[in-house]
Design goal:
Helix content is about 10%, strand content about 30%. It is mainly β. It binds S-adenosylmethionine. S-adenosylmethionine binds next to strand 6. Belongs to the tRNA methyltransferase O family.
């Protein structure tokens, strides 16, 4: 049986590219996004009662990867990027139906002109991600304290961040334009966004990495296990 779906909302996110988006939600609580209701769903009634819940489930499409199809086995970064496991034993983005699910924190419900939106925190979604459903998180049944986490049992160890003197003014400017930017940068870099093969290799301290957060290009180098911010360029 096939079933066609239309997005009920679009996600507005500080993450403007896939690189450096955390691999799961709630690892970067400073990431604040917005779910903008679409079409027939853009009405206050659809959200009535949602404010009673602290967290939400989002069902969404890995829309930027759909064209690349899927494979039955994947190499999760948590296993170093080499070992292969079945797609259904992973949270990989290349999946048969291209669907993702994330638990996020509900910040507030609001309206701007005719647009109804839900502000969320801790998302792991790219800007523009189509949302197919929003459901309240129900702790008594959704939380399973005795659950086994397999190869992803432990949260990754966070990496520290240092802002190099040459980047202090640019970081302050980004903070002024986007309050919370410094914390966002720190939490994003703490996840070590480098590809697993680079993170596990002998570090190349001269190599500079960059990622777009909001309208800034955050640039850093990895020196002695620390993320050193070298610049924050306004785009
Ligand atoms: N929590 C979700 C899940 O388990 O289904 C997503 C996990 S997936 C490993 C998280 C990654 O999806 C992010 O690091 C980002 O690179 C990627 N991603 C997020 N939104 C996407 C989108 N719209 N299209 C393609 N990839 C996306």
């Amino acid at each position: 049986m096939s079933h066609s779906l239309e997005p009920i909302a679009l996600c507005r996110s500080p993450y403007k590219e896939k690189f450096a988006i955390p691999r799961q939600p709630n690892l970067v609580p400073a990431a604040i996004g917005r779910l903008e209701l679409q079409g027939d769903c853009n009405r206050a009634e659809c959200l009535r009662g949602l404010e009673q819940f602290s967290h939400l489930w989002l069902i969404f499409s890995f829309h930027q990867n759909l064209a690349q199809g899927w494979k039955p086995m994947v190499r999760p970064p948590r296993l170093g990027g080499n070992a292969r496991i079945g797609v259904f034993a992973s949270r990989a983005t290349f999946r048969p139906n291209g669907l993702g699910m994330s638990v996020v924190k509900l910040h507030r419900i609001g309206q701007q002109g005719k647009l109804h939106f839900v502000e969320i925190a801790g998302l792991d979604l790219l800007d523009g991600t189509p949302i197919y459903d929003i459901k309240p998180y129900i702790p008594y049944s959704d939380a399973v304290p005795e659950a086994a986490g397999g190869y992803a049992s432990e949260a990754p160890t966070p990496m520290p961040m240092q802002i190099l003197p040459q980047a202090l003014a640019a970081m302050a400017a980004a903070e002024q334009a986007h309050p919370g930017f410094t914390q966002l940068a720190e939490q994003v870099l703490a996840q070590d966004p480098r590809p697993a093969y680079q993170a596990n290799a002998e570090p190349d301290e001269a190599r500079e990495y960059g990622v777009r957060l909001h309208d800034r290009d955050l640039r850093w180098q990895v020196r002695q296990g620390c993320n050193c911010v070298t610049d924050v360029v306004a785009l």
